[in-house]
Specification:
Layout: E1 22-28, H1 31-40, E2 48-54, E3 72-78, H2 89-106, E4 110-113, E5 117-120, E6 123-135, E7 138-148, H3 159-162, H4 168-172, H5 178-199, H6 202-210, E8 218-223, E9 226-235, E10 241-245, E11 250-253, E12 257-260
Parallel strand pairs: 1-2
Antiparallel strand pairs: 2-3, 3-7, 4-5, 5-6, 6-7, 8-9, 8-12, 9-10, 10-11
Helix pairs in contact: 2-5, 2-6
The structure holds biotin (BTN).
Length: 263
């Protein structure tokens, strides 16, 4: 398996701030944890931590993110001047950037799934983990972690993941250049982040929803260890999911996970 070429990560990178500083590691426990440490030491906005593999990659809700060599694993430090309650919107910015990059580079029909997933062919190819630090009701920084299954054979993953996960390699039938995907994703991320800070969330959410094929479908939402069934109606301006329950009432979820029941 080809190693990541650290020299290529900034070659031709067309960004203003994002990725001007990159900490590249062959292995780390979690790029998010490493980036949080750097942010606490005062690292600049746009600083990236990228690892070839993670020994303890973290997913949402305390899950493990399997991170063998062949995937793209990075975290970026952001210092937006926004309300703490708006930090969740950055997850949409990042998943939109990932979906657009995958569509644009490989022609795959990447879709967004609430709250933080990117799917290809109904299976997860990318996940986002946002962690923030605040003080006195004030957002200090956000670390956005992005994991993409790139040159991985999902058949080598545990059985329970094989049904729900895929990789770009499995979808395309060939390997792709991880460094190129990283640069494209970072460029899109910076563009959409700038748009979000300048114009607000509406435009981002509209774009995100165009790729969200789960809307209008029958889904199950797992939230606070409870399961709810209904129709996914919409994603609201605050990032919450509105679900029409079987008894006709509409319930909103700020966090959770959805499973599609019918396509
Ligand atoms: C999820 O879908 O549950 C989120 C997965 C996020 C994985 C990425 S890989 C880079 C960064 N470092 C981590 O430990 N996690 C995120």
């Amino acid at each position: 398996m080809a190693k990541i070429d650290a020299d290529k990560l900034q070659e031709g990178l067309n960004t203003k701030n994002f990725g001007k500083k990159i900490v590249f590691l062959r292995e780390v426990a979690s790029t998010n944890n490493f980036a949080k440490k750097l942010a606490n030491y005062g690292a600049d906005e746009g600083t990236v931590v990228l690892a070839e593999n993670q020994s303890a990659g973290k997913g949402r809700l305390g899950r493990v993110w399997l991170s063998p060599r062949g995937g793209l694993y990075f975290s970026i430090i952001l210092k937006p001047k926004i309300k703490i309650s708006d930090a969740v919107k950055l997850v949409f910015v990042a998943s939109l950037a990932a979906a657009e990059s995958i569509r644009n580079l490989y022609g795959l029909k990447a879709e967004t799934k609430w709250p933080n997933d990117v799917l290809v062919d109904g299976k997860k190819v990318c996940g986002i983990l946002a962690e923030m630090s605040s003080m006195d009701e004030h957002l200090k920084f956000v670390v956005l972690g992005v994991g993409v299954n790139v040159n991985l054979n999902i058949k080598k993953f545990p059985k329970e993941l094989q049904e729900s996960a895929t990789s770009l390699q499995d979808m395309l039938g060939r390997k792709v250049e991880i460094e190129k995907l990283f640069k494209k994703l970072l460029e899109r991320l910076e563009r959409l982040y700038t748009l979000f800070l300048k114009n607000g969330f509406t435009q981002i959410l509209e774009k995100w929803k165009k790729f969200a094929s789960f809307l209008g479908c029958q889904v199950e939402v797992l939230s606070d260890s409870q399961k709810w069934s209904g129709t996914a109606l919409d994603v609201e301006e605050d990032g919450s999911l509105s679900l029409k329950l079987e008894n006709g009432t509409v319930k909103r979820f700020l966090s959770g996970d959805i499973t599609l029941r019918l396509r």
